[in-house]
Each structure stands twice: as structure tokens, then as C-alpha cells.
Design goal:
The complex is a heterodimer of chains A (613) and B (132). Chain A is α/β, with parallel strands linked by helices and 613 residues long. Helices cover 46% and strands 15% of the residues of chain A. The chains are: A alpha/beta (613), B mainly alpha (132).
Chain lengths: 613, 132
């Protein structure tokens, strides 16, 4: 790690890491805010696009900001996306900025200089409310600003993400963000950093504006997520029940009191229905609610005077709604705990209906999905079968690393007779070596079995000859991550036809016609090897991947075994080197095999043993 | 005297088939041939032995089947049995091919796992989360 510079020495270079998912509304401003921080030091901006479905990707492409790198995440949520960015970062200081945080000029310097002290692991800037924002966003902003006000400029026990600077070295000691946590992974990180002996620092001078969710409903949804994350945290660190410097004790007490009040209300209703003594219970509930209301009203009045704005006077209203959202979170969390279901209901970076211009049915659908799919860690392995690909393999791996730094790779060397084994070893990827040439089917089975044993859920196959573009990986993974498909085939629709011979094209055309007739599905590219395999497909094909010249037969096999296959058009390049295995003779042989498979496969019983999940 | 007249051809045939049978049995004894595959050959050589002793069987069968020239029946039997044997060998070969495939894949995976273990032992503690 670079040592802190002496005064006037060369400044420390910094990496900005920005996770984004469907952030079309603010991402341009966020990047511009980061660009404002340029002060001559080397800088890189890494945006991790975590599977955006809106215009985010297009906007990022249009931005002409130097040193901006966009890499793909896996749609596993904010913590994972931040980790992906951190892994890709090259510099010793990492500035983590969220997709809705607009940095003001002069944000960087105070935070980086706070890290001059080697015992400081992270420094957090101060959110300043935007007085032109929507009402609920203003309430949220003032509330946070008031809480920050209570902090002394210096030590803090909590550094939240999105507005902070971390020492990369600290991640090496404390580990990366916990991807299991939807919210609160920053709290978790703060605790771990402190356990590792580091200090955390708050800097009021480093100012930024947070674009909070708009509308009361968006506010409550976000608060529900915060509450849920907090419960996960407290379950992990029971001693933190009393909160931290940003979330003080009275804030932690609020939901508890609210729960009691609501329980009392419910009890009163039951008692009233059973004509029991409901009045005292009702009084208790009302009393508790009053206490909460008054406490917030006082806080609101103080904030109103401090910020010279009337908005904080609404604190009691909003914060009672917040307490209600937290109670809902407590109820859900407890219910899930008791029933033993996974506990990842909300995510800080899933689609925000309120943030999108068109908060129509699409937005609400995504939110619903985010809340139903378990956010367990999904591990993806890239498989690169290679036979005598020494010339191109390096380029392929570099290509994948550039666009998907977090993707684990496995090269399967299928009995190469050239320098491939040496090349593979130098690349530093995982590899398997088949002692003899066994064919692509065998290589895939070996790779898939390895993947399954190492606990990978999803596999992506890329050819070692470089004809598949790594930037398309995200494209073919998406349907599987969404749960829409078991197998995604990337079909090439490209101009690489130009250098394949007529006979090859003819046979390919014939193959696709036959396959179409048999599977009832449009098969545009029967010989494509670019595919992504979901969990079911991985388990099935680890045992039964067809051999020989398997791609067309694979299609029949998948169809026969009831796997959902989706085709995605991808752009293929012509081979980067080496020799193609697609000679007219081989293709004809393949055609014959497929013909046989067509006759036989429908009569075979399905392999079946793979459970439907 | 024995009323079966034994001509020289028959003697040769019997001797040859007995030798064939002995060779097969000897191969089994020396474990050069697994019992599973020896069965076919033992049955085959016994059949030849039987036919060389009772030549009348062949003539009878040929008459019954309407074959004019009995030795051609012998040839046909031979061709059929060779065909069956070959088919069976193909089946065995296919099975072994699958087994070899599986074995190769397995060695490749084991090799990688051993590498992982070794690097894990030698390398830094990678207990929490993947390093940077």
C-alpha cells in the first residue's frame, strides 16, 4: 500500500466505486459530482452496473468522462456490486459513492486527508439536505442532518456507504462487504473494521446531497428495508442493540415502543370485541404513541430552528410512519425467523418505483420480485473449454477479466498438444486438464461437475478461440438470474458468416430447420457454443452432456428433458486465431449424428432424476 | 469294430476344436481373459467340437432347412456368430468408452482439487471472503 504523502508530495491516487441498478435518474449527476473532485491526483471511476433494465447502461456509454470504467455486476445486490468494484479497483484508497449521492466540490480532500492517520480505516462525509427536493426526501434529509449534527467532527462508530472513503488495505484485513445483507452491510463493515482495530472518522466538510426516495410510500418502503437490515445486524451483533453514533439509542427504542403500542391497540380491539376492559389498554397505547409523537415533535422543533425551515415540523408524522414500517419489518423478520425462511426481503439497490419516471406496473413488479426471490449468494463460474488455443486463450481471459472481474474462470484444457497448459498456468485461473483429447462434451461434463462440487450454481461457457465477446456474458446470464430460463443460448447473428464457406452455412441452415421442427422452438444458431446454464442444467449436464459434436444434440437433449431454453442474440467475432473445427466434413458428420439423435432421443426416456425446483 | 467311420478330415477338425477349447480355457486360467468374455468363446469352441464329432447333425439340419450344400450352412452359422460377437464387443467398447471418459474427467477434477488444496495450505488465510 502506498504510504500517505508528505505535504507537497505526490497525492495518493483514488478509485471511485459506484454501484448502480436502474439509476437512470441521477447517474449522470453522480458521475459529474465525482468529476468535480479532480484535483490532479490519479483517479479512476468504476461503475458497477448491476443488471440495469432502464437507460442507465446507455447513459453510462454516452458519458465522456476520462478514467470511467463500467463493469457488470451479477444482480446480486448492492453489497456484491460494491465488492465487485473494490476487487477491480487499482488504487489504495476507495471512495464509495452510491447511485443517488451527488458529491459537492471539495468532498474528496478532507476525507482522504483523514486517512493520513494509518489507524483510520474509513471516513464518512456529511449529507446536506437538498431544500428543493420532494417533501418526504426533505424530511429524511433534515433528520439525517440533525443526527449528524450530534456527531463531533472526528470519531464515529458508524460509516455508512455511499458517501465514504475506505482504505483498501482495511478490506484485506477485515474482508469485503457481506453480500448476504441487503441493507446494513455498511454497519456490519463498520463493526468489523473496529474489531480489526481501526478507527472511523466523520468529516463535516465533505459535503454531498443524497437523493432520497420521494413520496411517503417510497419513504416507508425504504424504512422497512432499513429496519429489516437492522434486525439482521442486531441478530449478528447483539451488543449493538443500543445503536451507534448515527442511529442513537432513542432511535432504536422507537420501534420497540411502537410495537408495544400497536400490540396494545390490537389487544384493545380484541377486548372491545369481547366487551372486556378495553379502555385501559387503549389508554396505554395512546399514551405510548403520545410519547413517541412528543419526542419527535421536540426533535422536529429543534431541527426547524436549526435549519430555519418548517419541514422538520413534520418529523412526528413521518417518523410515526417510519416506526410503523419498522414494526412491519420486525413482524416479517420474526415470522421468517420462526418459519426458518431465508431473510432477504428488501435490497437497497433494487428498483425504486418512486425513483423511476414511470412508476407503472413494471416498477412494482420488479419490487415484488426483489422481495420474493431469495437473495442467497449466487455463484457463477465461467467455463472455457480449450483444445490447442494457446494463441487466443490469454486474450479471452483478459477480455473476461476486463468486463467481469469478479467472475471465476475455469479453463478446461482438452488434451492440448501445444503450449496451452503453460499458458493456462501463467494466467492464474483455475484449470482442469484432461490427459487426452476427449472432446467438448467430456470437457464440459468435467467442468460442470467441478462447478457443482465447488458450489457454483450457474455456469457460462465461452469458447477459447475468442469468438464470444465477454461483454455479452451479462446478456446471457440475465434470463437465468431472473429465473426465466434454465439454459440461455447466445445465438450469433453476425457477419462472421462472411468467412465461413457456403457448404458450412448450408448444413447449419439445414440443422436449424430440423431442430426447429423437432423442438418447436426457433433455433437460429444450432452450433453456438456460447451458453449460460442455470442450476438445473448444471446438475443435469454434469452427468449427461452429449459428446462428439454436441451442440445440436444438446438442444434436443435439453428439450427432451424439459429445460427451459431461451435464445439471446449476441454478436460473435470471427476467430481470433487458431484453426476452426468447423470443416464441411465435420459438419456433415455432425449432421448425421443429429439425424440419429433426432430419431433416437425422442424415444429415450428423460434423464429425469434431476428434481424440479 | 466301431461302426462310425472316422475319416481324416474329421480327426483334424476334432483336434483343432479341442485345441481351441484348451487355448480358451488356458487363457481363462491365466486370467488373460475375463470369465465374462470367455463364455462366448467356450460356447463357440464347444459348438465346433460338437459339429466335428457328429457330422450327421449338420447334414440333418441342412436338409431340414432346405440347404443343398451342408458346408454353406456351416459358413452361415460362422458369419452369424462372428457378427454377434462383434456387436457384443462394440457394446463392451462403448461401455468402456463411457467409463474412460468418466475416469478422465474425474482425474482432471481431482487434479484441480489437489492443486486447490495445496495452494490453500501454502497460501494466505482465505477464511472470510475472497481477497482483493
Amino acid at each position: 500500500m502506498a504510504s500517505p504523502p508528505a505535504a507537497g508530495g505526490s497525492p495518493i491516487p483514488v478509485s471511485f466505486v459506484v454501484p448502480v441498478r436502474n439509476g437512470e435518474r441521477w447517474i449522470r449527476d453522480v458521475i459529474e459530482g465525482i468529476a468535480l473532485q479532480r484535483d490532479g491526483r490519479p483517479m479512476e471511476i468504476i461503475v458497477v452496473d448491476d443488471g440495469s433494465e432502464d437507460r442507465t447502461t446507455a447513459i453510462l456509454r454516452e458519458l465522456a468522462v476520462p478514467d470511467l470504467r463500467v463493469i457488470a455486476g451479477y444482480g446480486r445486490g448492492a453489497a456484491a456490486a460494491v465488492n465487485t468494484g473494490i476487487r477491480a479497483a487499482r488504487f489504495p484508497i476507495i471512495c464509495q459513492v452510491d447511485q443517488d449521492v451527488l458529491l459537492r466540490a471539495g468532498w474528496l480532500e478532507p476525507l482522504v486527508s483523514a486517512l493520513d492517520d494509518p489507524t483510520v480505516a474509513a471516513a464518512q462525509g456529511c449529507y446536506v439536505s437538498d431544500r428543493t427536493a420532494d417533501l418526504s426526501a426533505r424530511v429524511m434529509g433534515f433528520d439525517l442532518e440533525q443526527r449528524y449534527d450530534a456527531l463531533q467532527n472526528g470519531r464515529t462508530t458508524h460509516v455508512c456507504t455511499g458517501n465514504s472513503v475506505y482504505r483498501a488495505e482495511a478490506f484485506q484485513r477485515a474482508g469485503l462487504f457481506d453480500e448476504q445483507l441487503g441493507y446494513g452491510y455498511d454497519n456490519d463493515m463498520s463493526y468489523r473494521l473496529q474489531q480489526a482495530g481501526y478507527r472511523l472518522v466523520f468529516r463535516r466538510e465533505a459535503q454531498s446531497t443524497h437523493r432520497w426516495r420521494e413520496g411517503l410510500w417510497g419513504y416507508c418502503v425504504q424504512q422497512y428495508g432499513f429496519g429489516y437490515g437492522r434486525l439482521d445486524l442486531v441478530a449478528r451483533y447483539p451488543r449493538r442493540l443500543t445503536g451507534d453514533s448515527v442511529s442513537p439509542l432513542q432511535m432504536m427504542l422507537h420501534p420497540v415502543v411502537m410495537t408495544i403500542a400497536l400490540l396494545a391497540l390490537a389487544a384493545a380491539a380484541v377486548l372491545a370485541a369481547a366487551s372486556g376492559p378495553a379502555r385501559y389498554v387503549l389508554l396505554l397505547a395512546a399514551g405510548l404513541l403520545c410519547v413517541l409523537f412528543v419526542e419527535r415533535a421536540i426533535a422536529g422543533a429543534r431541527a426547524a430552528r436549526r435549519f430555519r425551515s418548517t419541514t422538520p415540523l413534520l418529523f412526528p408524522l413521518f417518523h410515526l410512519a417510519r416506526d410503523a414500517a419498522w414494526v412491519a419489518a420486525i413482524a416479517t423478520w420474526t415470522a421468517r425467523r420462526i418459519t426458518g425462511r431465508g431473510s432477504h426481503p428488501a435490497h437497497s439497490m433494487t428498483t425504486r418505483p418512486a425513483d423511476r419516471g414511470h412508476a407503472g406496473p413494471r416498477g412494482s413488479r420488479s419490487t415484488a420480485r426483489a422481495q420474493t426471490t431469495p437473495r442467497a449468494l449466487t455463484r457463477v463460474l465461467g467455463l472455457i473449454p480449450a483444445h490447442n488455443e494457446a494463441a487466443t486463450l490469454q486474450g479471452v481471459v483478459a477480455d473476461v477479466r476486463a468486463s467481469h472481474p469478479a467472475l471465476d474462470l475455469l479453463v478446461i484444457d482438452d488434451g492440448s498438444t501445444d503450449d496451452t497448459p503453460d499458458v493456462v498456468e501463467e494466467l492464474g485461473v483455475r484449470w482442469l486438464r484432461l490427459p487426452e483429447r476427449m472432446g467438448i462434451g467430456s470437457a464440459m461434463r468435467a467442468g460442470l461437475r467441478y462447478a457443482a462440487r465447488q458450489g457454483y450454481h450457474i455456469a457460462v461457457r465461452l469458447d477459447g478461440d475468442g469468438q464470444h465477446r465477454a461483454s455479452d456474458i451479462q446478456l446471457i446470464l440475465a434470463p437465468i438470474l431472473d429465473g426465466r430460463a434454465d439454459v440461455v443460448l447466445g445465438s450469433r447473428y453476425t457477419a462472421s458468416d462472411a468467412n465461413t464457406s457456403l457448404s458450412v452455412r448450408l448444413v447449419q441452415r439445414l440443422l436449424s430447420l430440423c431442430l426447429r421442427a423437432l423442438t418447436g422452438r426457433v433455433v437460429t444458431d444450432p452450433t453456438s457454443g456460447f451458453c449460460a446454464l442455470g442450476p438445473r442444467a448444471v446438475r443435469l449436464l454434469a452427468e449427461h452432456h452429449p459428446t462428439g459434436y454436441p451442440e445440436p444434440e444438446l438442444q434436443l437433449f435439453l428439450d427432451r428433458n424439459g429445460l427451459r431454453v431461451v435464445e439471446v442474440p449476441v454478436l460473435a467475432r470471427s476467430r481470433q486465431g487458431g484453426r476452426t473445427s468447423l470443416t464441411p466434413f465435420r459438419l456433415t458428420a455432425a449432421g448425421a449424428r443429429v439425424l440419429l439423435a433426432m430419431i433416437i432421443v425422442p424415444f429415450r426416456s428423460g434423464v429425469g432424476r434431476v428434481e424440479r425446483d | 469294430m466301431i461302426d462310425i467311420d472316422i475319416d481324416r478330415v474329421q480327426v483334424v477338425a476334432i483336434v483343432v476344436s479341442v485345441v481351441l477349447l484348451m487355448v480358451v480355457l488356458e487363457l481363462v486360467r491365466r486370467r488373460k481373459l475375463v470369465e465374462e468374455y470367455s463364455l462366448l468363446w467356450i460356447v463357440g469352441s464347444l459348438a465346433i467340437l460338437g459339429l466335428s464329432i457328429w457330422r450327421g447333425v449338420l447334414d440333418l439340419a441342412a436338409r431340414q432347412l432346405g440347404v443343398f450344400y451342408p458346408p454353406s450352412l456351416l459358413l452361415m452359422l460362422l458369419v452369424v456368430s462372428v457378427f454377434v460377437a462383434l456387436l457384443w464387443f462394440s457394446v463392451v467398447l462403448s461401455r468402456q468408452r463411457t467409463q474412460i471418459d468418466r475416469l478422465m474427467e474425474e482425474t482432471a477434477i481431482l487434479g484441480a482439487e489437489i492443486r486447490d488444496l495445496r495452494s490453500h495450505d501454502a497460501g494466505a488465510p482465505a477464511d472470510r471472503l475472497p481477497l482483493l
